[in-house]
Amino acid sequence: MIVRTVLGDIDPAHLGAAYMHEHLIIDSPLVADRMPHIHLPSVDDATTEVDACKRAGVGAMVDTMPAASGRNVGALAEISRRTGVHILAVTGLHTAKYYPGRPWAQEASPETLADLFTADIEVGIDRYDYTGPVVERTSHRAGVIKVVSGGPSIDDRNRSLFEAAAEVHRRTGAPVLTHCEEGRGAVEQVELMRDLGMPLERVVLSHTDKVPEAGLHKELLSSGVNLEYDQALRQADDPAPPTARLLAEMIGAGFLGRLMLGTDGARRTLWTSLGGRPGLAWLLTGFAGVLDKAGVDEAARHQLMVENPARFLAFEAA
Question: Measured between alpha carbons, how far is 271 from 277 in angstroms, rounded to an integer?
Fold first, then answer.
């Protein structure tokens, strides 16, 4: 079994504490123009932020910007080289707002998408990130498949994407990470993936702690799927943070083995290197104290941050 990072395959045992949903580089003219608050183009800024995480004990990060949406695998590789933190890239597609003027991202068949995503995992990610007519594959490969939906309803575009992801998983064994818009649509995603024959233990749903309803989370976890909670940084000043409370309740209900953490830190205002707060490192420093007060002890935190990601991100190399 291996974990596929942008600098090569590693033994899952060498992953260390892993952040499961990060945005270290978001670099596109569209983002710069329409979403400047998440524009993160600088390798130097990201290196400074990731260095702080490394000093806090972080060993790995999954950068979850998929194809043609601001992904830059060369930049991710350089950040990994400079910091020594293992970085995983994803393949797949993001929500439709990232693709105006790119009809292929809206209209391509599941078969076409599956071929593109498989090549990202098995050959290498395009240097130009599928933004032009030329494809020049690098040596940096993706280790995770990302899919999205825009809420409770699954439209035709999302269905094609999920069908492609299921096929890529069958071909490669790579794990699947999903984006739940505003935390919604998780039940519908699970139902669709079950219908597509996707083994739910190989899927992690992101952003679900935006809707901290215990009953919903117990229903999702009972299906066999994994959940990744990533809202803690936004709750740093909350005296009773919902994500910590939800984690403690789900662990108490017996679901520790299916939970992971990330920051979804795609906000310039969250990075200390850009003058924001509390900084990405806070997930492993300040939030650890919050969890301790909530009854989530050091052994449980180790499983959340080290053991569960190592299990989930591992697959057999082709």
Answer: 6
- Altogether, the residues listed in the chain come to a count of 318
Write out the two tokens for 92: 């797949």
Per DSSP, which regions of 6-135 are E strands?
8-10, 17-22, 58-63, 86-92
d(CA 318, CA 313): 15
The secondary structure of residue 6, as a DSSP letter, is T
pLDDT in tens, 145-160: 999 998 788 899 999 9
For residues 19 and 266, the answer to whether their CB atoms sit within 8 Å is: no
Tens digits of per-residue pLDDT, 136-189? 999 999 999 999 998 788 899 999 999 999 999 999 999 999 999 999 999 999
- Nearest CA to 270 out of 5, 79, 19 is that of 19
Return the residue matching tokens 């995770």: 144
SS3 193: helix
Dist. CA 226–CA 186, nearest whole Å:
11
Q: What percent of the chain has pLDDT over 90?
A: 97
Distance CA 306, CA 304 (A): 6
Phi (first) and psi of residue 317, to 5 degrees: -65, 140
Phi/psi for 162 (5° steps) reads -65, -40
Six-digit token pair at 124? Answer: 């290498």
d(C-alpha 157, C-alpha 98), whole Å: 14
- Name the CATH superfamily housing domain 3-313: Metal-dependent hydrolases (3.20.20.140)
- CA nearest 175: which of 201, 214, 154? 201
Where exactly are the structural domains of the chain? Answer: 3-313
Distance of CA 135 to the CA centre of its chain: 24
